[in-house]
Amino acid sequence: MNNTLVRTIKQIGVIAAVILAIVVANRFLPPQHNPLRPINLDDPIGVATHFKLARVKSDAPLCYRLLDKAGVAYTRLPSDAGTERCPLNEGLVLNQSLFPYSLAPLRMTCHQTAALYILEGQVIAPAAERLLGSPVDEILTYGSFSCRNIAGTDRLSEHGRANAIDIKGFRLEDGRLIDVRKNWREDSDLGEFLAEVHDGACRLFSVTLGPDYNAAHADHFHLDMGGSSICR
After folding, report:
1. How far apart are CA 176 and CA 194, in angstroms?
2. 16-70: per-residue pLDDT in tens?
C-alpha cells in the first residue's frame, strides 16, 4: 500500500470521525449546549447561548419570531423612528416582558430584548426566589435608548444604537429594594443576588459593566449586545 493511499484513508477516517462526533453531539447534547440546535429563549443558559444570540443579531425576522413565541409584547418602531446619528434600525418598544421596568417605554433592538428576556427568566427570577425568598416586582432602570457618546469619548454609546440598558436595582414583592450602589459586594443575600445577576449577564451580553469597572458605573449594571466583549 503506497503512502498516498495511506494518507487518503487516514483523511477519510478523520472526516468520518468528525461527522460522527457532530451527529452524536447534535442528538445528545442539551439544546443550551448545542450550537447546532435552534435557540429557544426559554431554554436554560448554556455554553452555546451567547453564540446563538450573536447569530440572532443578524437575523431580525428570526429574532421577532422568538419574541413572539416567548410571549414578549412589543411594538415595532418604523424605520425612521431614530435620527441620522442614532438610527433605530429594527427597533422596538418593549410593552410587556416577565417584569415591569421603572422607566418606560424601553426602546431597544430585538436582539437586546431577547438577551434581556433570557436574563429575566433564567437568572433574575430564580435567583430572587432562591436567595431572597420573594419574587421580583419591578426592575429599576436608568433606561435604554439615549443618543449620546460614551462618557469622556467621541464614540457613540451602544445606548445610541438602542442596544443597551442600565439596571440600577430591583424591587421585590415583599417591598425590599436592592440597590447596585448600596448592595454591590455587600456580604448579604442582597449582595449575593446582585453578583449572580452580574455573572449571569456576562454569559448573555457582549458587554456587562458594573461598579468594579469604573466610577461611572458605581450605581448600575450596563448591559449591551454591541461588538465589544467585556465582563467587569
Report:
1. 14
2. 444 444 444 455 577 777 888 888 999 999 989 988 998 898 899 999 999 999 9
C-alpha cell, 117:
428576556
The answer to whether 162 touches 107, Cβ cutoff 8 Å, is yes
Instruction: Round to whole Å and give the CA distance between 152 and 129.
Output: 39
Identify the residue whose cell numbers are 429575566. 120
Rounded CA separation 136/132 (Å): 10
Give residue 169's region: left, alpha or beta (phi > 0; psi -120 to 50).
left
Q: What is the dihedral of CA 67, 68, 74, 80, to 10 degrees?
A: 80
HSE value, Cβ hemisphere, 13 Å, CA-based, for 220:
15
- Establish whether the linkage from the previous residue to 211 is cis, with ω within 30° of 0: no
Q: How far apart are CA 152 and CA 6, in angstroms?
A: 62
Q: Which residues contact 89 (CB under 8 A, 6 or more apart)?
A: 79, 82, 109
Contact 217, 209 (CB under 8 A): yes
**CA 1 to each of CA 68, 143, 188, 226, 230: distance values in angstroms, whole numbers, following the listed order:** 60, 70, 70, 55, 54
What pTM was computed for the model? 0.86
Rounded to an integer, what distance in angstroms lies between the CA atom of residue 53 and that of residue 169? Answer: 25
- C-alpha span between 61 and 65 (Å, rounded): 6
